[in-house]
Design brief:
single chain, 313 residues, alpha/beta, 5-stranded mixed sheet, globular, disordered C terminus, binds zinc ion
Length: 313
């Protein structure tokens, strides 16, 4: 059966799948990233994992994978197929596409994890059918993926969509990026966890606990939550003023609060827009499989592109 390899590399684990021509997941697998062993060992693990997936295809699906898609964190030069930098994995300028192409003997696409996840949310997830979308996962930090006509814009240097570092509170909390008052210092799941732990006096309390307290009407929690929602709305309105998306897809840990987040967020965005068109604001649909599914789309796009090239005279 015709299929491709999809591989999503995270800071702690790697998720992989063999994806059929119609997008069906034919096989799924996970493996530890093992970043404590250093960047060279991580690269070796990625290559070995991909080779094992290729072997699985030969044994169980009767044919080797025709292409592979690989999503990695950090700064990614998708055009040249190079993983430029990842703080959590410690690598610099790894030519991952060339290494994996050499190992597998098939075409390989390399993508940035959030943009790749956004590609999947936009095409087959919450944004399905939207020609213009913005995907914003609220996790440890806040990132973004700008979807345009079935692809995700990487920017001239691979930095497009970094909405988490839009300054929403000038002179505010310092951010590791060097600025003060960045959105992710106020509205990431980590930021809400930190603030709520300090306010409620329980060091282990997190954003989900805060959301639960909001739902039960705790006024302190409501105040913490609303501050995060307001910061998020400020950042999102800046983004939608620039991009005019049809759909705004919000994912990550904080979005798991469901309507506790989405109802006040829709209100806060609506209050801020003047001439701008209000996009649909929807929760992400694919959860933590988005990166892997997106890697599969990248790989299948390679084949479609090749098919097109072959029939063009
Ligand atoms: Zn920042």
């Amino acid at each position: 059966m015709r299929h491709v390899i999809a591989l999503d590399v995270g800071g702690t684990g790697m998720k992989a799948a063999l994806v059929g021509d119609d997008g069906t997941l034919l096989h799924r697998a996970r493996r530890a990233t093992g970043r404590e062993r250093g960047p060279d060992a991580v690269v070796a693990t990625i290559l070995d994992f991909a080779e094992d997936l290729r072997a699985y295809g030969v044994e169980h699906l009767g044919t080797p994978a025709l292409a592979a898609g690989l999503a990695v964190p950090g700064i990614v030069d998708e055009e040249r197929g190079i993983a430029s930098y990842a703080a959590n994995l410690g690598w610099r300028d790894v030519p991952l596409r060339a290494l994996l192409t050499e190992r597998l003997g098939v075409p390989v696409a390399l993508g940035h994890d959030v943009r790749t996840g956004g590609l999947a949310e936009g095409r087959i997830g919450a944004g399905k059918g939207a020609d213009r979308f913005l995907f914003v996962p609220l996790g440890t930090g806040i990132a973004g993926a700008i979807g345009i006509d079935g692809r995700v814009e990487a920017g001239a240097h691979g930095f497009a969509g970094e909405i988490g570092h839009i300054v929403v509170r000038p002179g505010g909390a310092p951010c590791p990026c060097g600025q003060h008052g960045c959105l992710e210092r106020y509205a990431s799941a980590s930021a809400v966890s930190e603030t709520w732990a300090a306010v409620c006096g329980k060091p282990d309390a997190d954003a989900a606990d805060c959301a639960a307290a909001v739902a039960s009407g705790d006024p302190k929690a409501v105040r913490v939550w609303q501050e995060a929602v307001d910061a998020l709305a400020d950042g999102l309105v800046t983004a939608l003023t620039l991009l005019d998306p049809r759909t705004l897809i919000i994912g990550g840990g904080l979005a798991e609060a469901g309507e506790v987040l989405f109802q006040p967020l829709r209100d806060a965005v609506r209050q801020r827009v003047t001439f701008q068109k209000l996009p649909a604001i929807v929760p992400a649909a694919l959860g933590d499989t988005a990166g892997c599914l997106g890697a599969g789309l990248l790989a299948r796009d390679l084949l479609n592109h090749t098919d097109r090239t072959e029939v063009t005279p």
